[in-house]
Amino acid sequence: xxxxxxxxxxxxxxxxxxxxxxxxxxxxxxxxxxxxxxxxxxxxxxxxxxxxxxxxxxxxxxxxxxxxxxxxxxxxxxxxxxxxxxxxxxxxxxxxxxxxxxxxxxxxxxxxxxxxxxxxxxxxxxxxxxxxxxxxxxxxxxxxxxxxxxxxxxxxxxxxxxxxxxxxxxxxxxxxxxxxxxxxxxxxxxxxxxxxxxxxxxxxxxxxxxxxxxxxxxxxxxxxxxxxxxxxxxxxxxxxxxxxxxxxxxxxxxxxxxxxxxxxxxxxxxxxxxxxxxxxxxxxxxxxxxxxxxxxxxxxxxxxxxxxxxxxxxxxxxxxxxxxxxxxxxxxxxxxxxxx
Length: 340
Hints:
Elements: H1 4-28, E1 30-35, H2 39-53, E2 56-61, H3 64-74, E3 82-85, H4 88-96, E4 100-101, H5 105-108, E5 123-135, E6 160-161, H6 168-180, H7 183-197, H8 205-213, E7 219-223, H9 224-233, E8 239-242, E9 255-263, H10 269-280, H11 282-290, E10 295-296, H12 322-325, H13 327-337
Parallel strand pairs: 1-2, 1-3, 6-7
Antiparallel strand pairs: 3-9, 4-9, 5-7, 5-8, 5-9, 5-10
Helix pairs in contact: 6-13, 10-11
């Protein structure tokens, strides 16, 4: 005679084991990404990757610096398989802390040397330019601003717009200027900026573009895509982009990159490398860059039509690894000047 109670118990146990096995399998086939880039710009890439490979990606999104500190504190206990950052400085710092493992050469070599770590522990994926946005009603001659250093002119007191000095793009830009020129010149420039802002700085680049468009400020220092984002919503806005520091003897426009690294402690390196492989593919590069009107860093992949081609202007010759190596020196200078 069949013991129905025992049979039901056995079925329940087998069902439980089956469920646990399914959950374990799903977890093994899933990547966890610490992402310092907004979900809006990462999710389309993740969706395309999952559709192509069947590998799920779980995003843990926060500020890049906070996520890097989390990785540093968690060490081998971390759940992160990959780290995405919108700043080369944080990527290089993580590399120097020994938090990442090298990415294989076949993938790394798809990215030009100046946009990746020297030991391939992180790769740049998309680039942004530090440019000037001017109000065309107030600035009739765009050549009035040949350089970012023009923002320190005393005649512009109360007319310039910059972010606060804790902004990652701001710090990266200052680092580029330090490496492309010298400390004395950059310190003098920062002192002029401080005087001209009258301690009135902005929390976001988008607020800077809006202030310039509305005529509250004459000129602002921003990442290029904020200008095109504003123009997409307000095509008649009286603003224009100025590529500063051009010419034979000029330093060129400062660039920074968003990029990716594989956690040293990831237990899913093959899956993590498949995600990196997708990110550096032509399809991945277009998706990763175009969602935010940035520049793909892989050679031969065109940027969005709305933005100036990278070959149309001079870019500062400062490798992205320097943004991490000299980050503390930059922050020390900002604190010495007392930048708000």
